[in-house]
Amino acid sequence: MTPSELVPFVDLQAQHRSLRADIDRAISRVISESSFILGPEVEAFEREFATYLGADNAVGLSSGTDAIHLALKAMGIGPGDEVIVPAFTFIATASGVSMSGATPVFADIDRTTFLLSPADTARRVTSRTRAIVPVHLYGQALDLAPFQELARRHDLRLIEDACQAHGARVGDRKVGTLGDVGCFSFYPSKNLGALGDGGLAVAADPGVAGRIRQLSHHGQATKNVHSVLGYTNRLDGLQAAILRAKLPHLDAWNAGRRAAAARYTQELEKLDVVVPRSAMDADHVFHVYAIRCARRDQLLERFAKLGIQAAVHYPTPVHRQPAYAHLAGSESLPESERAAAEVVSLPMFAEITAAQQARVVDAIRAHLD
Ligand SMILES: *Cc1c(COP(=O)(O)O)cnc(C)c1O
User: Fold this and answer.
1) Residues near ligand 1 with C-beta < 6 Å?
2) For 168-193, how does the pLDDT look when each residue is reduced to its tens digit (9 = 90+)?
């Protein structure tokens, strides 16, 4: 098979080809400044990303998982506390909670949107519950209103996992700015990706942002004074400079993803598959375009034979992961389990061509015949 026949799942080369000169300049700047950890590039990126979101307090971090961990820790949540997370998400939503010492409690999702179910979340609130981590899964904004109501009633904190949803909006607000803390990842394949690991937290309360910053930097209060025990969870200068070169393109890339999603939906609606449907008028940024399809694993085999790189997000719900066997026991979360068995993520990136998408649609049509 020649490379031109492959339909990649994500094509980072396409993005980097057009930005190569800007990225090279950003890297040279950091080398000339020798500002490898924290420093001016990190400060500038924090400001620019906060402005992009319409947020006040942004803290660059080493990953999205660390953002979730430190957000909880900064709000005093830890051992003995329960934090509700969706069972159908990337495991890091839950492992970030576990890193804080708190116990993740798994809740089920809504069948139509794949997003955390407010009703199932409410059922799982106990006297130990301190926070909820709703996930804007696949880049689709989750309506936080019912969770805000639940949080008010039970005095809970809301930590948004926006690691797949850079730029997604609810009305005129960007996700990540709706709860107490919003957590972002810049893993290379995210809608805004670094050339390595990176993350960021935005906090509504500057005090919380300050504690996240302190925890990420050895617990340092002022030079040589460490008032709490902290970690090594900073964003590095090279990644910040690279992210600054990329951020101005994020909206155009998200628009490219939305256009590609519209092309998929237009063709797939005619077939017997379930296409993404959003529960409200929210701006989806299509980190993942996932359909439900009968005989999913056979479809994956067909894709593989044709050189179409599809994926599954996620084949195992988090409560069924071996690492969480001690917590979930035999509990059933039927919508999460059903989604894990039925979803397929189609190739999706801003530069995908209509011809590449037509090959994906043809393969699905042949599978259903
Ligand atoms: C990527 C991702 C994370 C973790 O981000 P890292 O930067 O890899 O630690 C957390 N939650 C979700 C939903 C993600 O997709």
Assistant:
1) 63-65, 89-90, 92-93, 135, 161, 163-164, 185, 187, 197, 199
2) 998 889 999 999 999 999 999 999 99
